[in-house]
Amino acid sequence: MARNVLVLAEVRGGALRPVSFECIAAGRAVAEGGSVTAALIGASADFASALVEHGADRVVVVKGEHLANYTPEAWVGALHNVALEVKPDVVFLGHTGLGRDLAPRFAQRNAAGMVSDAVDVKVADGNLVFTRPIYAGKAFATQVIKQGMAVATIRPNNVAALAAEAGRAGEVTEVAAPAADLRTVIREVVRKSTGGVDLASAKIVVSGGRGVKSADGFKPLYELAEVLGAGVGASRAAADAGYCDYALQVGQTGKTVTPDLYIACGISGAIQHLAGMSASKVIVAVNKDPEAPIFKVADYGIVGDLFEVVPLLTAEFKALLGR
Amino acid sequence: MEILVLLKQTFDTEAKITVKDGHVVDDDVTLVINPYDEYAVEEALKLREAQGGAVTVVSVGTDRVEEALRRALAMGADEAVLVEAPAGADELTVAHALAEWASAKQWDIVLAGNVSVDSGAGQVALRFAEVLGLPHVAAALKLEVGDGKAVVHRDAEGDTEVLEVTLPTLVTAQQGLNEPRYPSVPGIMKAKRKTIARVTPAAPVAAATVVQSVFQAQQNRRNTMIKGSPAEQAQQLVQLLRGEAKVV
Ligand SMILES: Cc1cc2nc3c(=O)[nH]c(=O)nc-3n(C[C@H](O)[C@H](O)[C@H](O)COP(=O)(O)OP(=O)(O)OC[C@H]3O[C@@H](n4cnc5c(N)ncnc54)[C@H](O)[C@@H]3O)c2cc1C
Ligand SMILES: Nc1ncnc2c1ncn2[C@@H]1O[C@H](COP(=O)(O)O)[C@@H](O)[C@H]1O
After folding, report:
1. How confident is the model over B176-218, as pLDDT tens digits?
2. Has residue B213 been placed in a domain?
3. Is residue A17 classed as helix, strand or coil in its secondary structure?
4. In Å, how far from its chain's centre is CA B225?
5. CB contact (8 A) between residue B159 and residue A107
6. pTM of the full predicted structure?
7. Are residues B232 and B194 part of one domain?
8. Domains contained in chain A, CATH given
9. % of chain A residues with pLDDT over 70
10. Per-residue pLDDT tens digits for A296-307
11. Residues B147 and B246 in one domain
């Protein structure tokens, strides 16, 4: 059965987020002869070519000053206008701050079923079958959308993006913006994210916990991250203690990350922290307490002082990677 | 102010999850108010204390949910309503069941949780807002209400957005919004005497999604502890990450 797929492209910090390409790849996998359209809302149409190169057949642009910053209602209206044009059977968004805020409202506007935080999607017996973590990653469920439009948010770093195909052709059209929403006004956006590597999409994450002991204590972690091209994360306790910003927090109330490699330094491994990183492909723990629960979920454990071990790791990786 | 709180009962976050025959076993599990919804209850009580009015908590669920509603009453909520869950309910069904009951009254503000810690869906509250045509602000870290508006500081992947929204609106709570109070002894006594209203949805909306199977997360971790001096440990780890795990 051919399915038309609509994907929301997300731009953050002046670049398309990798999860947008991953959503396109997921869309291609379930389209079965249907087309994949990317919606580009409130961002420059210049991003359209990258979306096409990564597998979109078509890009629909919605322009509008009031769409430059995300507000739920204006954006739901914009995505809805695109959907009226594209008539999708399936809609994929990244499971990001924006996607999580937008998708449920959009789904409800279409009385559609929705699966949140999918880590896999495939077609079986003509149905879309999604796999998703439940109970903060302690279990998984497979879920099917029975009828009507299917909406899902897809967790970053779980579906492989398609390799870019230079010069791939696709149609770029425009759809009218909805009226501005007068009920919600953005007064201010305080940017705290540390620039550089997007934590949710990072292939390697180096995280620090209360064991890092101070803001200065994060320095060796940043140095290791730099050599590895990694993002830097933290536990709630480290953010609570003021050693780093909450923007770095990984866990149930922070970001969910699924990197190839997660290096936990001075983190005990509380269940709420595990909720944000337990699906990482490989986990390394450095902790001076041999009884720390983090070792139970680690592939490789080092019992030791992070201030001793981390700089040694940095030196070893430097030598290995020639950086 | 008429304040409504959408409250779900969930597993204690520390609970061990056991899957049997494709279902999560919930017999011996401690059930609690979803932690994010507890922040919503606390915020509702603070709003009422500052501005007057009443706090109503509503939950879609089974008989067992009375416990959670009773706890919200003991914290200080004025009224509690239990809407019987339609069979096979998903987030679409629950949002409609809540909205059907809530639409009979005018609410100044609706508070809810950002996400429930068991299903991790983060859908019901925002769907509810959409059904009733309310604006929403999700993941609130700070809430100020006055002059028919709310000013909300919200968590946007670590950045903070400050939004102004006209009432009525729905706001969902993120950790950091407040510290929920413990029920007092007089609060508990008072809550015992209250009746929890029971409602059955008149026109339940059929679920659009079905859970096919549930399985335990597999922890196929290597659990290799690396021995030696710190320098040897670092060297070995880097070799294993390259040679065995192939991630660098
Ligand atoms: C509703 C709720 C939501 C939550 N959400 C989150 C969340 O999203 N993310 C999160 O992380 N937490 C969250 N928490 C908090 C969580 O329960 C833990 O308190 C927190 O994760 C602990 O952080 P930690 O491991 O850094 O600190 P600790 O538990 O204090 O552990 C510090 C560790 O560092 C080790 N250590 C100390 N010095 C050194 C050294 N020199 N070298 C090596 N090791 C050292 C110690 O042995 C210890 O194991 C939440 C809690 C609640 C109730
Ligand atoms: N059964 C329910 N009854 C009342 N409120 C609910 C129910 N399920 C979810 N909610 C509300 O919606 C929020 C998000 O839930 P969820 O979509 O399950 O992640 C919760 O934090 C609650 O505030």
Report:
1. 999 999 999 999 999 999 999 999 999 999 999 999 999 988 7
2. no
3. coil
4. 38
5. no
6. 0.94
7. no
8. 5-176 (3.40.50.620), 199-321 (3.40.50.1220)
9. 99
10. 999 999 999 999
11. no
CA distances from B42 to A21, B113, B175, B192 (A): 41, 11, 12, 19
**Tens of pLDDT, residues A252-298:** 988 999 999 999 999 999 999 999 999 999 999 999 999 999 999 99
How far does residue A268's CA lie from ligand 1's centre (Å)? 5
* Ranges of H-type helices in chain B: 35-51, 66-75, 91-102, 124-132, 185-193, 230-243
Residue B77 shares a structural domain with residue B179: yes
Give the model's pLDDT for residue A194. 59
Angle in degrees, 0-180, between the axes of helices B230-243 and A306-321, rounded to the nearest 10: 50
The domain in which residue B81 lies consists of: 2-199
Question: Candidates A240, A272, A286: which one to mutate for ligand 1, based on the most atoms within 8 Å of Cβ?
Answer: A272
Between positions 226 and 265 of A, the ones with CB within 8 A of B are 228, 245-249, 252-255, 260-261
The number of folded domains in chain B is 2
* B128 and B226 fall within a common domain: no
Question: Is B154 in the same domain as B245?
Answer: no
Residue B16 lies in a domain: yes
What's the pLDDT at A193?
64
- Contact residues for A160 (Cβ-Cβ < 8 A; gap 6+): A22, A25
Test the A interface: residue of B13, B30, B109, B166 with most A CBs within 10 Å: B13
Residue nearest to atom 6 of ligand 2 (CA): B8
Residues in contact with ligand 1 by the CB-under-6-Å rule are A 209-211, 235-238, 249, 251-254, 266-268, 270, 272-273, 276, 286-289, 292, 305-307; B 35, 175
Query: Could you write out the DSSP letters of every residue in A107-123?
Result: HHHTT-EEEEEESEEEE
